[in-house]
Amino acid sequence: MYAYCLFCQTQRCHAIASLLKKRGVNQAFSPQILKRQRKKGENQDISFDLLPGYVFLYSENRRLRGESLRAIEGVIRCLADQDNRCELSGSDEQFALMLLQSNGVIGKTKVCQEGSLIRICQGVYEGVEARILKVNHRNTRMQIEIPFASQKIRTWVEYEIVELKDEEEEDALEASC
After folding, report:
1. What is the structure's pLDDT at 175?
2. Contacts (Cβ under 8 Å, ≥6 apart) of 46
3. Number of folded domains in the chain?
4. Strands (DSSP E) along the chain, which ranges?
5. Would you say the pTM of this structure is higher than 0.85?
6. pLDDT < 70 regions, the chain
7. Are residues 61 and 84 in the same domain?
8. What is the model's pLDDT at position 110?
9. Are 17 and 94 within one domain?
10. Do both 27 and 62 map to the same domain?
11. Same domain, residue pair 170 and 95
12. Contact 124, 52 (CB under 8 A)
């Protein structure tokens, strides 16, 4: 599967993605991100353009021609490398393939804040419950405190390997301590 990215007129992205699907590309979309907003007293998940003006497309055809893609009304250009190849490579390709795995929709990110109770779901500490002491948003890491042998041990872990515990579980743990 080869990944491509088109820069388009922002208001035409969804129409261009639909047209590309009709023309036989495996998948095409303008990436979206889900954000929670409060409307009329209720929390709602609303999707917004993650990268306004960009359409990602995926095809088994390695050499989609930039000229044919630019001929589509609303397409400004096909992103290309120094050799004028339109297929994405390196970190750009990795990003595009990550978007493909999520069907172009980036979900909400975990809100990790100091004092929250978490459970580690991967790695050496898998299954361990801990409390967040500090959060480093820039590096997506957090310092946690793990109970061990009647002591509290501090260590740093990445956001990706933890899950937030629900409030009921947290209340039960607090009551047992």
Report:
1. 47
2. 34, 35, 36, 37
3. 2
4. 2-8, 27-29, 32-39, 42-49, 54-59, 75-78, 105-106, 117-120, 129-136, 141-148, 151-158, 162-164
5. no
6. 36, 62-63, 66, 108-112, 166-177
7. yes
8. 57
9. yes
10. yes
11. no
12. no
